Structure formats: C-alpha cells, structure tokens
Amino acid sequence: MENFKKDFLASYLSGGMGSLSKRDIDALVMHLLDEQGLDDGVPLRNLSNQQVSVKLRVPATRIKTLRYEATLKYISDNESIAKWRFLEVLAKSKFDSEKDKIGFIIEDAFTKNWLQGILKSDGLVFDNSFNTEVVKVDSDGLFAVLKALYDDKSVTTLKKRIDDTKAKKEKLSFAEIKKEFLKGAASALGESATSVATKGLLALVGG
C-alpha cells in the first residue's frame, strides 16, 4: 500500500490542499485500485463493474461512472489505453458468419464512447438495441476501423482468415483466427509477444 499512498498524495496535492472535489477523489481512488488493488495487491482492472461493486459495496453503475471519470482525469495517454482495452474486448468477441457480424461486450464506458466516435466518423453505428453493452458491427465496417487503429498486416490477415472461413476454405475457430491478429496488434502497440500484457491478452482466447 506504500505506492498507493505515495501516488494518492502526489495527485491529491498537485493542485494544492483541498483542490480536488469529493468526486475527483473518488475517481482517483478508483484509478489507483484498478492499477494497484487493495491489500492483496491484485489490480481490480480485470474485474467487471459488478464484481468491483461487491468488493467496494457501491452500485455497479457508480463503479462504471468512476472508471470512466478516472480514465479521463488520471490516464494521460487515453488513445493508447483505449486501443489496448479494445484489443481485450476483441479477444472475447464472437463472429456470426451467417449475419456477417462481429459481436462483443464493452463494459468500459470510456472505450465504448471512444469506439462509437470512431465508428460514427466512418458512417457506422452500433447495433445494441437489446443491451447497451452488447455490440454488433458489420465485419467489413469494423475492418475499416481496425486498419485505422492497428497495423495493416494484422488486420489484413484477420480479414482474409474470416473471408476464407465464410467461404469454407479454412476450418479454423474464430478463437484461432484472432490469435495472430492480437499478437501483431499488441506488437504494434509496443508489447512483445512474451510480455505479461500480451500473454494476458492471448489467455482471453485460450492460448
């Protein structure tokens, strides 16, 4: 907890004693808990809003709001964070070959708003009529967005694998198809194939 204390005081006193509102302090604590965890030292960032709400005894909607504000206020490189979080979302995504849609769950409000802004700029919209966290996007539209975010080679390979699967030229599962893309995209973001972050990402697809 020594780092927690040090980082908290550094942010709390940066603008002078009493300069942060209670809302800002709550967002700061949420940020530090996601990064450093509680007494066990296990970061909370990999837990869902509902799981964290049980730990901290506040509504899940409050956790979702705090995490959104924490990202805005206390993470300097929002763009890189959003790209990495979206990779984690894609790692758990599903592909509906009949409807040619890729579906995923985005619980993180910052990442969802960030992606929605990018999709809108390309004239695309979310299909989340039944659940605001369950998103379905046409694969071709999503590929156009992915090319703008990640390295071209990884996205092109992903698209070819999916096209071949739809045409029955390959019999790979979507989990297998995603692995190469995730490795390449993680590398382009500065993570080596052997880094803890990349290993954690690949673990989401089972390898």
Please specify the SSE layout and strand pairing:
Blueprint: H1 2-12, H2 22-36, H3 49-56, H4 60-74, H5 78-91, E1 94-96, E2 101-105, H6 109-121, E3 134-138, H7 139-149, H8 152-166, H9 174-188, H10 196-203
Antiparallel strand pairs: 1-2, 2-3
Helix pairs in contact: 1-2, 2-4, 3-4, 5-6, 5-9, 7-8, 8-9
Summarize this structure as a short list of keywords or feature phrases.
single chain, three-stranded antiparallel beta sheet, 10 helices, 60% helix, 207 residues, mainly alpha, elongated
**Termini separation:** 33 Å
The coarse silhouette is elongated
pLDDT averaged over residues: 85
Ranges where pLDDT stays below 50 over 5 or more residues in a row are none
The tally of beta strands, per DSSP, is 3
What's the total helix number?
10
User: In terms of structural class, how would the helical and strand content be classed?
Assistant: mainly alpha
How much helicity do the residues have? Answer: 55-70%
Query: Strand order within the widest sheet?
Result: 1-2-3
Strand residue content: 5-15%
Biggest beta-sheet profile? 3 strands, antiparallel
N-to-C SSE string, H for helix and E for strand:
HHHHHEEHEHHHH
